[in-house]
Recover the amino acids of this structure.
């Protein structure tokens, strides 16, 4: 609990989490584990991509790795650690001390991974290979794991399998849910700045109205899934931000449109990702406008069926057989553990931490049942140790 409470009070957002990273490094060293930086300076083009989309400048990626044991094989345990840009109103005695908040539970993920590290370090001599710990920033941006991968996460030692756990406030405390195959939706985001030519509202023929272009495009894009995607496939397109102008008698120079697309089927996603840029280009140019566009993508998280079948008995040992159930359907949200599970067999688990009348994730009043965190640590540790034993070389 102590680690979770400490992290909960110092939430940070994005890739650059200096206080959070410093705390985790200190705790690892107290256990006897030497942490390593895995990230470093963020490439200028990546910094500019996020800055142009309205995010604060993020100069560094403060990812951390550490290893326990030695030799092959190697299993990776992921715990994300970034927060959300919102003010916490939970009333907890250990509530956030700044204007950010751990309302997605990443503080508990990092704390559970620290707990697993302590367990695994105590049995290090018994491990039949290497456990690699991954403390990840920037999950909420869908890009943190990608930066760590680019910094060498999956090498030295080479990772053979990976596990991640996410707490859920809408699942009964202590229940562990899994899905075989696609586990979460892919998320593709287009952030569009439409550039027109400002002028007086009484003389629209002398202007190029970006608001008109934006509203035409808004309507067209929202019609796209229903007219070009099989109705049995889920594709959710939401234009979550549409803004432009300052007064009723002014045609502005620019307007903004931000569109998020969630999907599960690869073919449906490919079709949408082809058509959305086409429609943006055609609509804007048809009305004599120009545009700048930034795109962010996070693929679907995929639970490897063979790995799932191998690890489920060890999950049941740690959590209790009656607590481990198969979820009815994939998560509608996205999860950037997908960048890891695209490279090696992965298992993503959902750990229930809900209380009666609990608020949903990303709500400023969200509170978790802390009794389940020991279960999360036990799942990490038991799965890692037993998988290494089963795959010893």
């Amino acid at each position: 609990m102590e680690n979770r409470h400490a992290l909960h009070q110092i939430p940070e957002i994005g890739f650059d989490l200096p206080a959070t990273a410093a705390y985790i490094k200190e705790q690892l060293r107290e256990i006897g584990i030497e942490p390593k930086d895995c990230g470093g300076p963020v490439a200028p083009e990546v910094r500019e991509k996020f800055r142009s989309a309205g995010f604060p400048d993020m100069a560094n990626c403060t990812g951390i790795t550490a290893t326990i044991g030695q030799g092959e094989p190697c299993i990776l345990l992921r715990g994300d650690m970034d927060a959300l840009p919102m003010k916490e109103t939970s009333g907890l005695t250990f509530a956030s001390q700044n204007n950010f908040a751990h309302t997605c539970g990443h503080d508990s993920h990092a704390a559970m991974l620290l707990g697993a590290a302590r367990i695994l370090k105590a049995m290090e001599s018994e491990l039949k290979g290497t456990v690699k710990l991954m403390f990840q920033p920037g999950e909420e941006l869908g890009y943190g794991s990608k930066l760590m991968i680019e910094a060498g996460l999956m090498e030295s030692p080479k990772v053979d399998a990976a596990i991640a756990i996410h707490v859920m406030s809408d699942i009964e405390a202590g229940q562990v849910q899994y899905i075989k195959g696609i586990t979460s939706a892919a998320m593709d985001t287009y952030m569009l700045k439409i550039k027109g030519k400002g002028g007086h509202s009484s003389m629209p023929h002398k202007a190029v109205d970006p608001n008109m272009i934006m509203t035409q495009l808004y309507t067209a894009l929202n019609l796209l899934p229903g007219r070009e995607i099989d109705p049995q496939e889920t594709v959710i397109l939401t234009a979550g931000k549409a803004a432009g102008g300052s007064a009723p008698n002014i045609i502005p120079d620019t307007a903004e449109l931000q569109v998020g697309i969630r999907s599960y089927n690869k073919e449906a996603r490919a079709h949408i990702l082809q058509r959305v840029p086409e429609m943006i280009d055609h609509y804007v140019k048809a009305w004599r406008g120009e545009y700048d566009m930034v795109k962010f993508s996070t693929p679907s998280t995929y639970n490897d069926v063979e790995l799932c079948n191998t690890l489920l008995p060890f999950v049941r040992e740690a959590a209790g057989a009656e607590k481990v159930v198969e979820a009815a359907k994939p998560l509608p949200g996205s999860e950037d553990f997908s960048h890891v599970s695209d490279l090696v067999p992965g298992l993503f688990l959902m750990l229930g931490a809900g209380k009666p009348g609990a608020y949903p994730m990303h709500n400023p009043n969200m509170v978790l049942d802390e009794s389940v965190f020991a279960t999360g640590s036990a799942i990490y540790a038991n799965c890692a140790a037993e998988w290494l034993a089963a795959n010893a070389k």
About this structure: The CA atoms of residues 244 and 294 lie 18 Å apart.
